[in-house]
Amino acid sequence: MNLRRTLLPALLLFALAAPSPAALRAEPPPPGRIELPKEQMSTPQELAAKADVVVLGSLEEEAKAYPTGRRVGGHPLLNYVQVLRIRSVLHGTAVSSGTLELITDGFDPLPLPQDPLNLKYTGPLVRGDYVIFLRRVPQTELYFIAGGWQGLYPLQGGRIVALQKQGGFAAYGGLTVEELKTKLKQRQ
Question: What CA–CA distance (Å, rounded) separates 174 from 127?
């Protein structure tokens, strides 16, 4: 009897103090708080293996800028979020809505063209069609470019352009989207 009087209030107090199941789920960090990895890949095979998804997509909208509160080389670092309209999934599984949010990082104002930061930070991307190797940002619905510039391939005249000066792999340059899709399937 005495145990019930002691145990019942303790259990009631514990139940009221326990967080709800919704509170146990972590809130995704705001875009300005996300720090994107700066991992470089050694080979095109490593890039493909580390990408969660490879898509052909179109960037059609302007980027939204989010201050990070960090500075790199004296420049304020910003995160940018853009909507990528998925035209085709070449490898992996993308969201079913046909769009995803791409997060990149860079500076405004831009560093001078010869500044090595330009090779490390892509900044917001211009409108156009791209093949992009993507990784998902944990605990969010955002995706970032695997390997930075290494995972970004503009599409021109139906062919993939390798941005070799920025670290893109020549093995993917000049291929059609279908040829790349076949190459990625052979890797599996």
Answer: 21
